[in-house]
Amino acid sequence: IPVTMEIASDLLDRQGPIYREDTAVFVSQSGETADSLSALEYALENGALCVGITNTVGSAIARNTHCGVHINAGAEIGVASTKAYTSQIVVMAMLALAIGGDTISNQARREAIIDGLFELPNKVREVLKLDQTMKDLAQELIAEQSLLVFGRGYNYATALEGALKVKEVALMHSEGILAGEMKHGPLALVDENLPTFVIATRDACFSKQQSVIQQLHGRRSRL
User: Fold this and answer.
1) CA–CA separation, 169 vs 138, rounded Å?
2) What domain count does the chain have?
3) Is 27 helix (H, G, I), strand (E, B) or coil?
4) In the predicted model, is pLDDT for residue 1 greater than 90?
5) Which residue of 21, 64, 145, 149 is most buried, as measured by CB atoms within 10 A?
6) SS3 at position 204
7) Are residues 124 and 135 in the same domain?
């Protein structure tokens, strides 16, 4: 099924095409974001089926969409959305599994995704054990003015989200960058003074991310 990602404000600025045959999914922690509500109104006017994924029961998006999912992640106390973000990803993965159906051709991939979802709580526990390591790393970066986060494939979204969290929490300039575009501008900024992060999970993009790491080392980046 063809899927495109839209930023609500940009969709409205462009008056992007939405048709009666389309399904528009609105993802919002609060369910009250002004741009998302305006985009929802636009989608409804164009006859699309509107689905809401929110963390707030009774929110405007929950009330005005045709159907949807409450992620039930609990209240977000801080400015940066964390558990709501990861819960939204889980919900969208489950939605994709439901839409994709249980055909023989994708059974192995489907089972791998389901097994991965079941394993998520254990993965989170492992990450939380790195608390002191992350504090030590933060001390090394606390005086910096900027950092770059490189991601590729699915992890480009992770790079964008990670950079956003640095901006929101540390009030530091940070950019999430598509690693394949590194040579088109970002690499010129890299030197021995600029901290850089590369997200390199063992997926189809792993070997390409290794190449990115080598190029950053060549620039003596603080990787």
Assistant:
1) 12
2) 2
3) strand
4) no
5) 149
6) coil
7) no
CB 209 within 8 A of CB 198: yes
Q: Confirm if 85 and 161 have CB atoms less than 8 A apart.
A: yes
156-206: per-residue pLDDT in tens? 999 999 999 999 999 999 999 999 998 888 888 898 889 999 999 988 889
Q: According to the model, what pLDDT value does residue 104 have?
A: 78
H or E, element range at 198: strand 196-198
Strand-by-strand arrangement of the 173-178 sheet: 173-178, 146-151, 196-198
Phi-psi region of 135 (alpha: psi -120 to 50; beta: other; left: phi over 0): alpha
Last residue of a domain, one of 93, 128, 163: 128
Where do runs of H (alpha helix) occur along 46-182? 60-64, 83-100, 107-128, 131-141, 155-165
Q: Report the pLDDT value the prediction gives residue 48, as an integer from 0 to 100.
A: 97
- Segment 91-111, tens digit of pLDDT: 999 999 988 877 777 888 889
**Residue 215: is it exposed, middle or buried by C-beta count within 10 angstroms (0-12/13-18/19+)?**
middle
Tens of pLDDT, residue by residue over 23-73, are: 999 999 999 999 999 999 999 999 999 999 999 999 999 999 999 999 999
State both tokens at 158. 């992770």
> What is residue 213's three-state secondary structure?
helix
Q: What is the domain range of residue 177?
A: 131-218
